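re: the backbone from monday

yeah here it is again, tokenized this time
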């Protein structure tokens, strides 16, 4: 799997994680420093957290769509995740408030170490107080939050497995009894709400910003993120597959002049297709 990850990354500067979302067993990590010891702005991946907060607080009542302006067509949560609508998540983020978004981010394991058996793990960053936060951007782009790729892997694993926040385990045989799930906790988010996040992640791959991750042999669920870092662009993609029977989580981070969340999704798609074909 490391060979597949390296080949799929190609000449891009970046990091790849392949993990089992049911046990936390890490099959491969490319670029440990980027994956475990360096934190990144989650960008639009924070929309999953904002959505969970809005669903939990009943600020958002799916499948009822929202009309964001007099000239815009109504859009529901699934489509808003698919196209990564900043205006949709700015609106519901303002309704929920930054305190609740931070609370749900913490529930998903952001701002704390995952416990992976690598030294010097970065815990990321969650604002303690929302003072000075641009509320209109916070719920859509994650301003002021930092997360490691391994944290994003455990976040999407919790969506995939129905609410278990796992401790990643590296360097053990997947068949070993030592690879039984190490459950940090069960997150306090109803399965029905996690399923609504999954629907948006499937739509993102089916016809949205992550369509480069599509695999004809299985349904992939994922979320893209893109942000500027000094003079370069950073693309992030966090995903799992098959959506109905999760076996793999793939997280990709790339950095360069022409990188983006959709580009990271395309790298993940190459990985999924290689895993499906057994190459």
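seq for it, each position gets an aa:
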């Amino acid at each position: 799997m490391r060979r597949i990850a390296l080949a799929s990354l190609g000449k891009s500067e970046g990091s790849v994680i392949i993990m089992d979302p049911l046990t936390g067993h890490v099959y491969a990590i490319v670029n440990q420093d980027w994956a475990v010891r360096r934190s990144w702005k989650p960008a639009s991946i924070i929309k999953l957290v904002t959505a969970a907060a809005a669903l939990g607080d009943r600020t958002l009542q799916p499948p009822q769509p929202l009309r964001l302006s007099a000239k815009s067509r109504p859009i529901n949560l699934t489509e808003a995740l698919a196209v990564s609508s900043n205006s949709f998540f700015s609106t519901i983020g303002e309704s929920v408030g930054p305190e609740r978004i931070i609370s749900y981010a913490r529930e998903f394991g952001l701002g704390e170490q995952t416990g992976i058996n690598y030294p010097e793990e970065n815990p990321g960053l969650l604002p303690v107080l929302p003072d000075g936060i641009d509320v209109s951007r916070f719920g859509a782009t994650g301003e002021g939050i930092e997360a490691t790729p391994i944290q994003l892997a455990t976040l999407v694993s919790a969506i995939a497995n129905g609410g278990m926040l796992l401790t990643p385990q590296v360097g053990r045989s997947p068949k070993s009894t030592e690879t039984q799930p190490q459950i940090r906790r069960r997150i306090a988010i109803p399965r029905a709400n996690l399923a609504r996040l999954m629907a948006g992640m499937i739509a993102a791959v089916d016809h949205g910003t992550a369509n480069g991750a599509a695999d004809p042999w299985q349904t992939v669920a994922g979320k893209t993120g893109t942000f500027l870092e000094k003079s370069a662009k950073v693309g992030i993609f966090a995903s799992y597959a098959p959506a109905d029977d999760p076996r793999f989580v793939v997280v990709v981070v790339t950095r360069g002049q022409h990188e983006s969340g959709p580009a990271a999704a395309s790298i993940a798609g190459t990985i999924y297709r290689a895993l499906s074909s057994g190459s």
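The mean pLDDT is 93. The chain has one domain: 2-277.
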